[in-house]
UniProtKB/TrEMBL annotation:
Transmembrane segments: none annotated. Pfam families: MazG. This is XTP/dITP diphosphohydrolase. Keywords: Hydrolase. Signal peptide: none annotated. GO terms for molecular function: nucleoside triphosphate diphosphatase activity. GO terms for biological process: dATP catabolic process; dGTP catabolic process; dTTP catabolic process; dUTP catabolic process; response to stress; TTP catabolic process; UTP catabolic process. The keyword Signal does not apply. NCBIfam families: mazG. Residues 123-198 form the NTP pyrophosphohydrolase MazG-like domain. It comes from the Bacteria. InterPro entries: MazG-like_dom (IPR004518), NTP-PPase_MazG-like_N (IPR048015), NTP_PyrPHydrolase_MazG (IPR011551).
Amino acid sequence: MSEARVAEGSAVVLVDDRLGEVVPAAAVPLLRGAAVFAEPGLAPAAREALGAPEPPADLLARAAGEPVVLFVGDLGCADAEALRAAGARVIGAPAPAGLELLDAVTVMDRLRSPGGCPWDAEQDHDTLRQYLVEETYELLDAIADRDREALREELGDVLLQVLFHARVAAEDAADPFDIDAVAAGLVSKLVSRHPHVFADGSAELDAESQHARWEELKQQEKQRKSIVDGVALGQPAVALAAKLVQRANRAGIPAEALPSGASPGEALFDIAARTKLAGGDPEDELRAVALAFAERIRAAEWRARESGREPAQLTGDEWRELMSDLSDPVAARAEP
């Protein structure tokens, strides 16, 4: 007994509900002369756009006599399996990069909407500020530790903050905007500030000149009157000093015009300035030293407990003895 075969032009078309009414281009020519059906599991919006009924009970027999095109959201359904086994062509489209972001937006909307999470519904831009700061520093820790799994997770947590703030912004009665407006603004900015990539601008020779050009274009776009306009004044003081020094240097302000003096603040600014002008990052370097010091303290505390002493009861001399021969792990942290 020979196996049933479907008519030429029959196909199973896989569509992704997250892409709404998007249909793979290769399926379009087949629709003209075929009987078109849509599995009930397909998203209602997609079924409505197709205007296609559910497949009949005798779908396979019908496909033997005329071309049949079945739209499905999952190739594992019984009708799709039967058509495939009988020789129907399978048509799909590769998922575009970033498709999972649509799920993230959907989940955020669900959490924020009526019937979602009460805590999420109560938040606003001000209450979320602390979490953005915390998640950013946790991401920096993952980068410093070269922990790939933590890096992936913390990038997701930072992305959540972007989605959360955009969802809150969409509810603003006076000036609403959503995640699409955020993304569109970013795309416009990236394209306009990279004319050497997206337009006919002259190619830049190195990363530093490209960075300088970025700053020039930013000044023009935002119509800033000062070279320090747009600097985030709420960032950590060492990073703020380094950013101001960078702007001043690019504007041609000489090093001797930078703050210097005997006060602690002026001395710290001077160190940050000299580090930045030498090509370093004072914030990263200070953080590396601080983290190394924290590791030395932990090692000394472990030594103390190993010898039967509690760290809280150690004298200054005992601390010196426990920490004197501990290597500084800063260099080790910098190794690839």
